Structures
1.
Amino acid sequence: MLVAGNIVSNTSFHSLAAGSVRGGAPRARIAVYKACWNQGSEGTKCTHASILAAIDDAINDGVDILSLSLGGGINMVPGTLHAVAKGITVVFSAGNDGPAPQSVKNNAPWVISVAASTIDRSFPTIITLGNRQKLVGQSVFYASGISINNNFTKLVYGVSCDNITLTELNVTGRIVLCYDPTTVAQILPRSNFGEVLQSVLDAGGRGLIYAQYTVNLLFPFEGFPYALVDFEIAYKIYSYIGSTSIPLVKISPAYNIEGEQVLAPKVAAFSSRGPNPTFPGILKPDIAAPGVSILAAMQGGYQFDSGTSMACPHVSGIVALLKAVHPDWSPAAIKSAIVTTG
């Protein structure tokens, strides 16, 4: 959990981000209300009626804080306004449609809208070219009881790595460089990587180097070498491919570094931006909190996840601590204290 939970030692995700974890407000008690349902092929749906019913139940149960990691522009104006009128602080995720402007969601004036920021932890992945040049990408590529091929593998340039191109190139058993700067203006970073990864797998590729203008949105993957690189690194790899008749590459598993050598915090590339499209006179998002590669308790273990849904409970934990110290503060006073504290 991110909001509450006692200290747990010796946690990690396959030895990455090893250490101790705890919730932001360890002594807080959590009430859980189901508002989203699995609709099979349509995925998980959170209807307005279900969310309003959950908010109504929470108000009647006397909760102090509502932490709502929900997107889709659901302001839930009646429910959240009634909650705030009852002295309940409402904290919302701001959405993951960045870096497009005016994409911020859940932007009612009386709620706290939370953007996502990076943290001082990074997962470098060493890319070694056949000429022994070492470059650095980012990934959560790991090996858990799987034998990793430490030998050099043939490298091929797949341009945008669409299915037609991959079929024509015959990428079977090769690591593919997906680098197409001409599509930057049309494709958001998070929306294409999964599709390209699956295409490379289906085509028999042995690994993937994927170029995009941000590398702070990572996807855990076991046993399949991959690395996200920026366009500067991608161009160096592209130039190497053109300089030799048999380009080779090796991708090492990720490791983690922490502290001052990581430039953070920065607003995550995927985090929705202002200005506020619904209430132009109200600045939104209100605040940013850690939301990139967060180690969180999930399904009996710990996994990395990214999004403003990870950032939202960080702020909810701070609200809980403030409520404990200042139980007489109103939601407006708590929000003011948070957004005006440097």
Note: Residues 8-119+262-339 form a domain with the Rossmann fold fold (CATH 3.40.50.200).
2.
Amino acid sequence: MEKQKINIVDTTLRDGSHAVSHSFTTKQAEDIAEGLDKIGVRIIEISHGDGIGGSSINYGFSKVSEMELIKEARKKINNAKLGVLLLPGVGTIEDLEEARQNGAEVVRVATHVSEADIGIQHIKYAKKMGMKAVGFLMMCHMGSPELIVEQAKIFEDSGADYINVADSAGHMVPDDVRKRISLLKKSINIPIGFHAHNNLGLAIANSIAAVEEGAAYIDGTCRGLGAGAGNAQLEVLAAVLNRLGYDTGIDIYGAMDVAEDIVEPIMQRPQVINTASLMLGYAGVYSSFLLHTYRAAEKFKLNPRDILVELGRRKMVGGQEDMIVDVAFSLAQKKKETAHS
């Protein structure tokens, strides 16, 4: 019996950018892309952590222009497809055109789980340029299975090649994943992907649940490098899927070597579930908020957990990073008022 094929999408050079404060150098991008290509990764995603066009005062400036990274990484890839992430309102059609000119072949158009309509033009334009286009629904713990189906159909009708369900906050447990992926599988006619975060320690378990319910594209990063507590650890993901009898096409020993020899030496901190990362998952807060929250907590002398809980209470989503300082300021003012009352 033929093994079921699972496409591994690596996002070390995109989601991992959050964990290194967007400081990837050209040489690092080349080495990582070349290594991932050799071990059999199907799609290698490279962008600022918040997608193309994300290098800014709001989201943090990239050390090296992402278009330069895309262009140089492309030269090292022979088999994989090179992809980028685009958040409408952060990245533009012009950014997408430039990424395409520099060698990007895939774009994942990322919107909040209830806002697929703002990505329609980007999906259509990508298809017009001959790119593989993916509808990427973020913060899916905030959407019911029925809402996710509704929004996925908007992307499908726009020409998307597959739909990616993202647990951006690392808030879901396997049952949550199963309910969303299983209904989606029954309701649309294009493949499904899944993107996990490890804030509750469930990235691998959630990815396996997605595969068992029919997902064909699964995201991972070397050493789990990514926002918050990181993503599904690529080398672990490949090993587990292999043990379960799936065909990922990944050279598992090679994946271990890329993670240990190339990625680990450039990590700024161990990718562990510390208290703040755990709070992201527990409160259901967007994983890329973590470093912004740390900075705001230090500036206003607050406990970062208090900021994260308030962000979760306000249901803040990706693209609102600039509001974290406002939330921290508000909490600091309340703290002062309480102290003086």
Note: The first strand starts at residue 7 and ends at 13.
3.
Amino acid sequence: MRRILSQIVFLVVFFVSSSAYALTSGSVTNGSISAGGTSYQTFSGTAGQGVHLSGYSDDYIVRIDIVDPDGIDWSGSNERFVGTLPKTGTYTVEITATSPSLSGDYSLYYVRGADSVSNGSLTSGESETGTLPELGLISYDFYGESGQAVIFHTAAAYNMQIYVYDPAGDYWTGGNNRVNSTLPDTGTYTVVMRGVSTSDTGAFNTYFFLGGEGVSNGDALSGTNDNGSLATNGILSFQFDGLFDEGLMIHTNASSPLTIRVYKEDGSLWTGANNRILDQLPEDGRYTVAVYATSNSFSGDYDFYFLKMNQSDGVSDGWFVPGTTRGFYLQPNEIVSYKFKG
């Protein structure tokens, strides 16, 4: 009888110590392992979706191994894993120490494309601040429509890798510190960020812009100059109403070249150049403008000069008066504008 009871107790204790817990996308799960032990977690996903797992411990290097829904070893790596699910179903994550003699607590970060995120939704024209833990993952989402342009920048004392997943959760695009592209589908996108190096940690800023959506700097007024300080890898954005065939002139000035992009009301890219744009609007509507440094390391003062060439639009220096002379000092890339009757 004692032998039977001892076997039952053993089986119950073993089951509890090896239970698998379901991971939540966008969250961190804390656990621990004993020397030579294994901790089990699970997550579910659809074939083609992207997943991120990142494990940190003060006591050992975390080993991550993943078993697919059929019980077959799929993949694994030390500390960080990024992959595309080959099958639909529930996966098992096995956490161990790379040295079996070590033990202690660990933190496991998990994000899946088209699932919940850690830092909420991005808003066009706004910036976010935060702190990246060592071996941590930061995730956001945003809604966009097919054909809309998107710009996403990060700034930190270290380089950040950006991964963007489409509304189905499949990997779409990415880059270090910057993403600038056109959305292929309509729906909610997932953005995942991590340090390039496993030792990267500390404060960061993000800057987000969608063509045709909210802007950071308000309305661009004809004949005026907006000036201020551009943050490292920051994005300035403006909006204006325009008419078909109306002339448009935009100049920027800074100690480093600035990229200008102009977007139509549907959010698609119309035109762009470095420092200067002179063109005629292709249609009536509300346009948005994004401005950022060509170099992702620049920060400093800028000037943004804006002029629409329509009789009703404003100018910087008023009316020409017949028989008079005007003198001025032209700043680098400045636009000086007048009206006259003829």
Note: Residues 2-17 form the longest helix (16 residues).
4.
Amino acid sequence: MTDASPEQRTALVLASLGMLEEPVVQFSARPGRVSIVHGTSAEVVWADELGLEKTSTCQFASNLNMSPVAGDWVSVRDGNVVEVSARRTTLRRPRPRGGTMQSLAANVDVVLVVVPIDRDLNLLMLERLAVMAWDSGARPVVVLSKSDGSTDVPERIIATKDAVPGVEVLSTSTTSGHGIEELRKLLHHGVSAVMLGASGAGKTSLLNAIEGTSEATRSVSRGGEGRHATSTRRLYRLSSGGVLLDIPGIRLLDLTIGQSGFEEAFADIVTLAQSCRFGDCAHDGDEGCAVERAVDEGRLAERRLLSWRRIRADLAIRDARERDDPATRSQTGSRPRRGRRRGP
């Protein structure tokens, strides 16, 4: 577009970075998007006054309104990031040493929950990753990787759909190419996605397969634990038109849960709970519990309810710790019941 105006060229640059027409992102200087963060600086792809694309390592202004992460829309002036625009969605986890939550990626539309099936399917990890994805505000999609190493792919797909009902599930193999085209179609123009999964789940291999790139990958140990092939959070523009954020592997202990994501991930139990006798039913022996009745009648898997109880308990403990109230923390899970369930 040699005859395009600076505004038109700027719009094209931002569109290639995943900018949506709505909602409108506000900028106070030249617009750009963070590709990768290095301490107090970031690699930013931005548009200059002529609307030409630039990639620069920008320092953070001393009065910056928040710490940028990969995927953030930012304003750039004189080689500095001077403002971080409001985020539509944020993928977060607890900081390794406790304290406030750590943002991993911003402004994503889809969270690709990557789970390998060349070994035992880790349903607990899957459920918590799904809760974390829902809590970000983005749409989760489960990607079952390394399907070429499994002899019971259909059964693994069924188990996954039972664990995270309502979530789209894709099985993939970077060796055979199975499922890669379907995954590529998800990452079309205007879509910003992030891959979320444990180390060794095959995230970087999937990126390589999608793009034909050669990002470094490392083998998985005998125990199934991978080393971090991805050591930082980085933004990639894909040939399919979308944008993909690759972040380091997540450990089970790193997973965070929020109330909104918890309710989305267990929407089936939330719906059943509307028929419980008591509004604060814990679904654990309470009289008139519609959720436990559904388990007795085979309408809800017992393992699903057990997962709900476990994650709910973790959420209560975390909330109590955040309030820093020892009395509340000691009473977590001790809510008096209105009556005991008398059996099916």
Note: Residues 266-330 form a domain with the Ribonucleotide Reductase Protein R1; domain 1 fold (CATH 1.10.40.50).
